[in-house]
Design goal:
- 51% of the residues lie in helices and 12% in strands.
- The chain has 388 residues and is an alpha/beta fold.
- The protein has 3 domains: 2-135, 3-Layer(aba) Sandwich (Rossmann fold), CATH 3.40.50.2300; 159-320, Hypothetical protein af1432 (Orthogonal Bundle), CATH 1.10.3210; 325-388, Molybdopterin biosynthesis moea protein, domain 2, CATH 3.90.105.
- The strands form 3 sheets. The chain has a 6-stranded mixed beta sheet, sandwiched between helices. The protein has a 3-stranded antiparallel beta sheet with strand order 7-11-8, with no helix packed on it.
- It is built from 14 helices and 11 strands.
- A hairpin with a 5-residue loop joins strand 9 and strand 10 (352-354).
Length: 388
Amino acid sequence: MFYKIEVNMNDKVLFADDEINVLEGIRRQLRTVHDTTIALGPQKGLQAVKEHGPFAVIVSDLRMPEMDGIEFLKKVREKHPDTVRMILTGNADLKAAIEAVNEGSVFRFLTKPCHTTALSMAVSTGIEQYRLVTSEKELLEKTLKGCINMLTDVLALVNPEAFGRASRIRKYCSEIASIFEVKNLWQMETAALLSQIGCVVLSNEALKKIYKGQELAANEKAAYEKHPMIGQDLLSNIPRMEEVAEIIKCQNFVYDSFGMKEQDLQGNEIPLEARILKAVLDFDMLESKGLPKGMAFKKLKDGQGIYDPEVLEVFEHILGTELTYRMEEVSMDELRIAMILAEDIRTKDGVLLISRGQVITEVILSRLNSMAGHSRIKEPIKVFVSGS
């Protein structure tokens, strides 16, 4: 069992101990000072973390049945690394204290009996530490998010073709990475969104030729081949974007690259996110050349040694029934939610409205209908419709 004692405060504290008398004593001591939850044993502690976390501070007994305090706090750290962890124990063993600090990343090691004032001060100090860590993290995340949004906005303005491609691949990259349980999913999504940021050195017309498989001038080809390195250079000096920059650098790396001097990594040495990006980008490129999804994916599977076979297996699973979609031409009146655009939707003047590959949603359909009333949209529109 675990009990929650409410007070009008924002920072929550959890105490885990296998002795109910100890927990009842803590409740009496701190009920007017801290927002406190008490849990009888480590399993109830983990349950409390799952149902009521995250906590600013968690204080655990060292010696408990089923799981000791060090193991309990290690499990807490896996889910909530910012939570400040403390040990409160009647065992003043120096070896145990060192182990708690090293393995459980314990902030304080307190011994029983612990005076109310000392315990409250230790918890208050832990709360201050939690606030410091989380406020700095929040500031950095807001700054990073603003930076990412600014870069994608620049890409959309300078090169809408590249932005359209990045927007299309993001969904597949995120879904594949989720199945692989990639730890920092935001890095995969950001790498997908910014995978084409190095293309700012190319004209929109050059990218149109690239995506349609048309012949390029020598200088255009050379610039396009360098775009992953340019993307890496643009991002590598931004805090917390170093790994994203590495993923973008490796986006064209071949999986089985034995003997390729220009590639310093091969196989599973290549970041998983880059292997995912390689498969999804090439799939998108084949679709841009007019290949149906089924044929485009078959070409990926036929590319011996180019792609990570496990990534292709997951990608095929995600595509599922999409591989059986048929292409149709429809008017604006026939356009329906859940259809997938097989080509860009443009105005009669050639202005890009919605990029190919996007799923028609209620919002998109409403936007298009408002423009269609002025006869501005070029029709018919090519879409993919489920064959089922």
